[in-house]
Predict the structure.
Amino acid sequence: MSAMSAALRTALMLAEAGVPPLPLRQGKVPFGNCRNCADGACGGRPNMKNPSPCTCPAPCHGWAAATTDPTVLTSPAWASAWREAVAVAYHPGGADLTVVDLDNAAAIAWARETLPATQTVGTTRGEHWIYRGTMRSANAVREGVDIKSTMAYAR
Ligand SMILES: [Zn+2]
Ligand SMILES: [Zn+2]
């Protein structure tokens, strides 16, 4: 048996903490859909906007593939994605969380003045402020600020 990739190890730790992880490929975006799921042929996963019977075993459909099930995470269908993964993302809404993604110093200054204090995590360019509970995700609610919760992924 080959050594478990660092990405998969991180993912299993997140899953154990109740946070559904997802592999990201080069460019830090989710892996593309497999042939059976390409171009909406399968309609998407049951927890997406348009419920469908897609039961694809591969990590298709971006955030919708994120899961805390270790059997799925360590399955052969996910193995190549973990080998090629450059980062691990997670689905905040699936862990009953909302992440306020602050992309620059001005956004962080705004958050310090405006938002209730909470747990924060440093990112490449800014900070993630993490809150309990879910809400609708929204990009660019103001300059440098995204809200990531349901139907989104964060890293
Ligand atoms: Zn698929
Ligand atoms: Zn599908």
Observations:
- The chain has four helices and eight strands.
- Residues 3-90 form one domain.
- The pocket of zinc ion (ligand 2) is lined by residues 37, 42, 54, 56, 60-61 (CB under 6 Å).
- The chain has two domains: 3-90, 94-148.
